[in-house]
Amino acid sequence: MILALTGAATAYGCGIARDVPMAELTSFRIGGPADLMITLPDVEAAAAVNGICEAENWSRLWLGRGSNLLVSDTGFRGVVLRLSNGSMPKRLDETRLSCFAGVTLPSLSRFAQLQGLTGLEFACGIPGSVGGAVLMNAGAYGGCMADVLESVTILRGDRAVDVPAAELELGYRHSKLMQTGEPVVAATFRLRAGDPAAIDARMTELLTARREKQPLEYPSAGSFFKRPEGYFAGALIEQCGLKGYAVGDAEVSAKHAGFIVNKGSATCTDVQKLAQHVRRTVKHETGVLLQPEVRLIGEDWYPPED
Ligand SMILES: Cc1cc2nc3c(=O)[nH]c(=O)nc-3n(C[C@H](O)[C@H](O)[C@H](O)COP(=O)(O)OP(=O)(O)OC[C@H]3O[C@@H](n4cnc5c(N)ncnc54)[C@H](O)[C@@H]3O)c2cc1C
Questions:
Q1: Residue 27 and residue 9 in one domain
Q2: How many angstroms does the Cα of residue 129 sit away from the middle of ligand 1?
Q3: Is 121 a member of any domain?
Q4: Whose CA is nearest to atom 20 of ligand 1?
Q5: Looking at beta carbons, which pairs linking 174-180 to residues 24 or more positions away fall under 8 Å?
Q6: Separation of 3 CA from ligand 1 center, angstroms?
Q7: Residue 306 lies in a domain
């Protein structure tokens, strides 16, 4: 079975690796080994490999930059399909850009700035790929993917299918793709003409704000919890006196309580125990039940009664 998959992957110019530590592929620097990883250079390769995975019933994890993941210490049993970040976006016309979904948000937003197109400034400091960002409807500083996304190309088996953004049910850190599991392999954005210098100035302002407020010096997956309606997760956690609270090397950041950081050799179990303590304390003290924004891979950690 594995031979058909790796044979096709090789024929399409993909990278293949076995027993890859997920800690090396995630911004949290946490996670045990994945059985197999295939790095996909383009839509054609992604479609061919996905078709075989589907036909052979492989358990799949679609991976972008691993910046919103907490992977189990035992890793992932199956194949990690990672979109390469090696290609450039393309300008389609006056206001539209398209790209392979492995392109990172910082490079996409810089490309747009250099082209004199405004709308993607919000994304310049989000360290994810376009595919992961569409799935999560990533956003910051008042903007989100839904504001600028025109359409995506997704995979159904070995077929690439174009879908308008309006059909993705994009909401706060949500898309329909979370239910369907269909991977995004390309995206088209509709932006507006703007002044490159003004766009650059706004990007610098946003990157500076991030450096000042976020613990970027430590590995993390960004905000660990979603923003509960009417509150900020970080403010609630701080209000409960949990800033700096740690389990092993996993710590509620002393700089921004919405982040859980890895101070060195935190395990997934450490983060899980810490997150559960935070959830229970915040629920007990404020009545608000925090929901994780970070995607948990490998196990179901949160007990149903929570
Ligand atoms: C320091 C820091 C700051 C951050 N700031 C923000 C922020 O301001 N706003 C924000 O929204 N997020 C933020 N994040 C979180 C994260 O960067 C975003 O959620 C990002 O969109 C995830 O993209 P990714 O490529 O890293 O996805 P991954 O972490 O690789 O994957 C996340 C989810 O998307 C799925 N996925 C990945 N690629 C695809 C694909 N091609 N098709 C379908 N599904 C796919 C994965 O299976 C997984 O379920 C931050 C993270 C860090 C570490």
A1: yes
A2: 7
A3: yes
A4: 128
A5: 174/136, 174/137, 175/134, 175/135, 175/136, 175/137, 177/134, 177/135, 178/135
A6: 31
A7: no
